Fold this sequence. Notes:
Blueprint: E1 22-25, H1 31-42, E2 46-50, H2 55-69, E3 73-76, H3 83-97, E4 102-105, H4 120-148, E5 151-156, H5 169-189, E6 194-201, H6 207-220, H7 224-235, H8 244-255, E7 266-269
Helix pairs in contact: 1-8, 3-4, 4-5, 6-7
Bound molecules: nicotinamide-adenine-dinucleotide.
Nicotinamide-adenine-dinucleotide binds near residues 33, 51, 106 and 207.
Amino acid sequence: MPGHKVSGQTASGLSVDLRGQTALITGSTSGIGEALAKGLAANGANIILNGLGDHDEIEALRADIAKTYGVEVRYHSANMLKPDEIEDLVGYAKSEFGRLDILLNNAGIQHVAKIEDFPTEKWDAIIAINLTSAFHTIKHATPIMKAQGRGRIVNLASAHALVASPFKAAYVAAKHGILGLTKTVALELAEHGTTVNAICPGYVRTPLVDAQIGDTAKARGISEEAVVRDVMLSAQPTKKFVEYDQLVGALLYLVSESGASTNGTHLSVDGGWVAQ
Ligand code: NAD
């Protein structure tokens, strides 16, 4: 599947000196989170991985990032549905590395269904993982960043934080919500050397996207090929999926010193989707 596998190298073409910094990335055992963790590691940051998955595969990923980029990499299994585990995750970053410089709220799930068929438990889980987990990580990271006098919080939102698509009620609501959280906390932390921003990607060919192709086909009554061509890529004027390295580039800007005045806003990386 093109773009599906996250490569060991990053080719964003940008570099920022993150040596000595600690980055915590929720949902970094797959897809965008894994790619962004590698992008930060490639620039010298020590990494806390988090996410679901097979124990041995996660350990192999952890060891591979550490070896490839020569940084320290830890893994914490906090479930983003569980506030106590999220608090423990943030505390783990501080206890392992003594600091937390970059918090990337990336964990997310999707469910595609008509509103009248939308399972209530899916609504609850999407709001909890895609929105409320970021409230918890930010709440616990804030005292650490305030004490440091510097921090970078980046929320992986979506083009669906800015515009809607049918059959994605919970996802669109959660992503719109995270933009509100981004702006609010940005105002609260602005005088503490900490910026809070969102990245709003268009479609990236990850396991999350592959998994929704079938459901979207069913909800719209069209073929899976038509979903890719007429629903996903038709939303993006470039007619191309967004590449991992393009998101790494946006993230590196936000966490750099050049990004110090970019606060409480979002970077769209969507091929022009929301310009329409
Ligand atoms: P993915 O399915 O490849 O990865 C999701 C990650 O979240 C995995 O590491 C998974 O283990 C983790 N996760 C899921 N539930 C969790 C839980 N309860 N606790 C802890 N971790 C959990 O998906 P992706 O496409 O890489 O999505 C990553 C983020 O990017 C999501 O927030 C998604 O909404 C957003 N996004 C994706 C796209 C896209 O086209 N793929 C576009 C815009 C935004």
